[in-house]
Amino acid sequence: MDILNNFVYIKNLTKNQFEALLAISQILNRDVYEDEIIKEMLDWVINVINAERVVFAKYEKEKDEFILIAANNVNKNVNNNLTDFSAGILKQVTVKKQPVLFHDVQNDEGISQFVSVLIKQIRSVIGVPLIKNDEVWGVILADSQSDRREFTDSNLIFLNFISNLVSLAIERAGRLRILEEDNILLKHRVEEFVTAPDMIGISKGMKDLSKLIHRVAASDATVLLLGESGTGKDLAANAIHKLSLRRENPFLAQFCGSIPDSLLESELFGYKKGAFTGASADKKGLLEASNNGTFFLDEIADISVALQAKLLRVLENKEIIRVGDTQVRKINVRIITATNKDLPQLVKAGAFREDLFYRLNVFPIRVPPLRERKEDIPLLAKHFIQKLSGKEIKLGRFALIKLEKYHWPGNIRQLMNVIQRALILCDGDRIEEEHIIIEENENNLNFNGTIDDFVKQLLLKRLEEHNGNRSQTAESLGVSVRWVQLKLKQMDYK
Ligand SMILES: Nc1ncnc2c1ncn2[C@@H]1O[C@H](COP(=O)(O)OP(=O)(O)OP(=O)(O)O)[C@@H](O)[C@H]1O
Ligand SMILES: [Mg+2]
Fold first, then answer.
1. Which of 112, 152, 266, 305 is the most exposed place for a label (fewest CB within 10 A)?
2. How far apart are the C-alpha atoms of 351 and 344, rounded to whole Å?
């Protein structure tokens, strides 16, 4: 249908059809998303052309197949499975890039061969392509099981106008989305100067953390990083080193959890030849190897009382003795430690030396959990998509909403795992809601905090599951409402 013909045909449009076109054209001036445009459009179409069923099917060019995006029908019993519609009719519209109209399809030899048409007793079909960048992007299809006189040429013209308008609106929505996404990225670039190296985030929690990191990096103070698992303590330790005067010298780290004491000791302090079976030569420990640099002891709460004493000597006298040796060696190392446990509680219980605790706790920094800085989720998600896929994969609006709603007990590490899974599940260029699969138990299985931490996390999780309803939360946990209120108060929960 060319422009000149449009003018001729336009006279044939009814008042209803004009009204619908006006309404659809107004959508063009609103900032809405594709799915809303399509939904509104289907509502109008079903009203105006009196079809029993209208669907919008998206054409996936690479796979040469149609996906049902939205459907609308007067008769709620109608099944909206796409196979109900003749794939052959969809195909014809796509190939011709032109609207098609069939009356009495049961007796049309070219069409009745399609099984679905026969089974469903479809009598009339209208199909109109939606064109984007000169290619068919989707098809609006309306059908009726009765012989509909209303499926007229004038309806075809009407649908053609609609398809042009919707195509424009969809292009506009696409551009709007890109602008929004660019905006988030630009905002982040501006903020990048104030956040710590490699640490993504624009929330107040991240800005405060970054300020502390910058401040403490300039000093040579011992730092204790506190925070739940997966919040970014390793990253923070690294950032402190990178921003400090020691940055040209080594940054070494040792994880202290679940490592036999003797092995940990020889790793940290090194050993003299013959100190134990297998010690065939003298070996420098990690503390010595990080001389003039920074040494990060991760999960400090797990080290034995004997090693705690040796570590105290490093902090007090800046000296070490290799295992099996007598020679005292001077070292110049800045110590950073981290834990997700409640150290004062362990001190009280006699499991952690109080003097060591005070030595380590010179400058404590709390890394906030992700649920306290949900504003960072869009940026973090995009960062991980880019980092893990290396591609420009978009994050759908509903996928993002799902991420923002969750309480993330496993923090940023868990978010990263969820994104990784989503990238595996999604084979298009956009991560949608159904690709976001959150394993509720993944953090609880290897929970290594204190019982108190566990109680807090469980309570928050249940509270979220019950939409903040305290009596339902109490009932599900088998405790009194008073207990829940008391715990929340202790946690400063508002
Ligand atoms: N702000 C951030 N920006 C980008 N990536 C982050 C950020 N925080 C953490 N990550 C990433 O999340 C993962 C977990 O962080 P990290 O290992 O530092 O956590 P952690 O607090 O040390 O956890 P654990 O207590 O289990 O050792 C890492 O892959 C890290 O790179
Ligand atoms: Mg860590």
1. 305
2. 10
Residue at 296: amino acid letter: F
Q: Which of 234, 297, 416 to mutate to test the pocket of ligand 1 (most atoms within 8 A of CB)?
A: 234
At which residue do the structure tokens 């829940």 appear? 484
Give me the amino acid identity at 229.
S
Instruction: Name the pTM for this structure.
Output: 0.59
The CATH architecture annotation of domain 204-366 reads 3-Layer(aba) Sandwich (3.40)
Q: How far is CA 246 from CA 193, 223, 233, 235, 291, in A?
A: 20, 15, 19, 16, 10
Give the type of residue at 482.
Answer: R
How remote is the CA of residue 177 from the centroid of ligand 1, in Å? 29
Q: For ligand 1, is residue 256 a contact (CB within 6 Å)? A: no
Task: Decide: 235 in ligand 1 pocket, CB within 6 A.
Answer: yes
Task: Encode the chain (494 residues) as per-residue pLDDT tens digits.
Answer: 444 455 566 677 778 788 888 877 776 666 666 667 777 777 777 778 777 778 888 888 887 877 777 777 655 555 555 655 566 777 888 888 888 887 766 666 666 555 555 556 667 788 888 887 788 888 888 877 765 565 777 778 888 888 888 777 777 777 777 777 676 666 655 554 446 778 899 899 999 999 999 999 999 999 999 999 999 999 999 999 999 999 999 999 999 987 888 999 999 999 999 888 888 889 999 999 999 999 999 999 999 999 999 999 999 999 999 999 999 999 999 999 999 999 999 999 999 999 999 999 999 999 999 999 999 999 999 999 999 998 889 999 899 999 999 999 999 999 999 999 999 998 888 999 999 998 776 544 445 666 777 788 788 888 877 778 888 888 878 888 888 888 888 877 66
3-179 CATH: 3.30.450.40
How far is 190 from 440, CA to CA, in rounded Å? 35
Q: Domain ranges in the chain? A: 3-179, 204-366, 372-447, 450-494
Closest residue by CA, ligand 1 atom 10: 232
Per CATH, which fold does 372-447 belong to?
Answer: Helicase, Ruva Protein; domain 3 (1.10.8)
